[in-house]
Amino acid sequence: MMKTDVVIVGGGLAGLNAARLLQAAGINFLLFEARPILGGRIQTVNEAGQPAVDGFDLGPSWFWPRMQPAIANLIAALGLPTFAQNNEGDVVFERMSRELAKRYPGLIQEPEAFRLVGGSATLVRAIAERLPDERVQRGARVLEMRLTNVGVELIVQLSNGQDQKVQALHVIAALPPRILEATVRFEPAPPPANVQLWQQTPTWMAPHAKFFAVYDRAFWREAGFSGTAQSMVGPLAEIHDATTSSGQPALFGFVGLGAEQRRSVGETALTEACVQQFARLFGAQAANPRATLLKDWAADPLTATLADWFSAGHPHAQDAGWVAEPWKEHLILAGSETSPIEAGYLSGAVEASAAAVTNLIHKFTPSQN
């Protein structure tokens, strides 16, 4: 049996930041991530859809330093370069199918959104490379948690398919509450009120899909467009410039169809409709992308449950506690959705994980009274 002070479940930004802070505090930990790569919903890929050191963000891409100091301070502490989201140029509004799209002068965006040079996965790599390899296991699914007289015993299915028992004093669940409830068996079961709260908390990005079209030239900029558009016609409801800091030109949009509609339409037809929409809005050159990418988060079992297919709300931190007895002293929820500040965003992941580690440091520090 493996033993440690703290087990972190989930290797997205919240889990990695928790590991970074525990390491700084001298507290032993093991981190288990079910995916073969770290990052969770932070996924930066090239035009072929493969993980890349410079590419397109299938998940979160923006942060707003003026209103999200937690993520801004972390990025600054890691010395990561950033650049502003392009908003220079006109915007397009498409109100109905029988009318031509209207073009309007762009407005200064306040607060200004920023992106990481190389993509959001740059943040994941910057934290992960500072952690000891032996403390981070990828492709490792936590299946069960059992309370014992010395803490928590976990059953973890490792990447080789074998189950491993792990003993920990405390567990940080750094994943969406819905995914925790759906994928981990608890013994004893948490109180019904906790289970209901976890099930009812929306997972950010889970109901949504993002579509990218990659081009040889940023022709929309040349024509005086910013790449920003809003549409009530679809299939894309909100569109932005996705050109990378290295100059790979691209447009992206959030698909306005629900998860069931997307599955009914199919990826091929949806891709064709999205490209046709870009051509309607930005001209004929948009009809011939070099590559396209479609990420449907509702089809990702490590992000979405069936509840997310019908729940598109933004998570809001609850006043009630996330964990009650008998688990209260040994389990802390630290996914972005549990943050009282910026829930669901990158900054929320930083806030929630920092609060979790602060809580544990108090538990490990002897009372001075």
Quick recap:
By secondary structure, the chain is α/β, with parallel strands linked by helices.
Fourth-level CATH superfamily of the largest domain: FAD/NAD(P)-binding domain
CATH class (first level) name of the largest domain:
Alpha Beta
Q: What's the total number of strands?
A: 19
User: What is the ordering of alpha helices and beta strands?
Assistant: EHEEEHEEEEHEEEEHEHEHEEEHHEEH
* The CATH topology of the largest domain: FAD/NAD(P)-binding domain
Main sheet characteristics = 8 strands, mixed
Total individual domains: 2
CATH architecture level-2 label of the largest domain: 3-Layer(bba) Sandwich
Low-confidence segments, given as residue ranges, are none
Radius of gyration based on Cα positions = 22 Å
Q: Please identify the structural class as seen in this structure.
A: alpha/beta
> Strand portion, in percent?
25-35%
Cα end-to-end separation: 36 Å
